[in-house]
Amino acid sequence: MSGFPDDIPFFDEDEPSANPPAQQKPAGSGSGSGIAARAMAARGGAASARYLDALNPEQRLAVETTEGPVLVLAGAGTGKTRVLTTRIAHILATGRAYPSQILAVTFTNKAAREMKERIGTLVGEAVEGMPWLGTFHSIGVKILRRHAELAGLKSSFTILDTDDQIRLIKQIIQAEGLDDKRWPARQFAQMIDGWKNKGLAPKEIAEGDARAFANGRGRELYAAYQERLKSLNAVDFGDLLCLPIRIFRDNPDVLAEYHRKFRYILVDEYQDTNTAQYMWLRLLAQRPKSAGEAPLNICCVGDDDQSIYGWRGAEVDNILRFEKDFPGAKVIRLERNYRSTAHILGAASHLIAHNEGRLGKTLFTDKAQPDEAKVKVHASWDSEEEARAIGEEVEALQSKRHALNDMAILVRASFQMREFEDRFVTLGVNYRVIGGPRFYERQEIRDALAYFRIVSQEADDLAFERIINVPKRGLGDASLRQVHDVARARQVPLLQAARDLAGTEEMKPKPRSALRTLTENIDRWQDLLDKTSHTELAETILEESGYTDMWKNDRSPEAPGRLENLKELIRSMEDYESLRGFLEHVSLVMDAERHEEMDAISLMTLHSAKGLEFETVFLPGWEEGLFPHQRALDEGGRSGLEEERRLAYVGLTRAKKNLHLWFASNRRIHGLWQSTIPSRFLDELPEAHVDVADEGSSYGGYGQGHIGRPNPYGKSRFDNAEVFSNTYSTPGWQRAQKNRSDATARNWGTRSGHQVERIGYGETDSGYGAGRGSVKGRVIEGELVAKSVSESPSAFKLGDRVFHMKFGNGNVAAIDGNKLTIDFDKAGQKRVLDSFVQPA
DNA sequence: CGAGACCTAATTTTT
DNA sequence: TTAGGTCTCG
Question: Which residues form the UvrD-like helicase C-terminal domain (predicted)?
Answer without folding.
Answer: 342-611
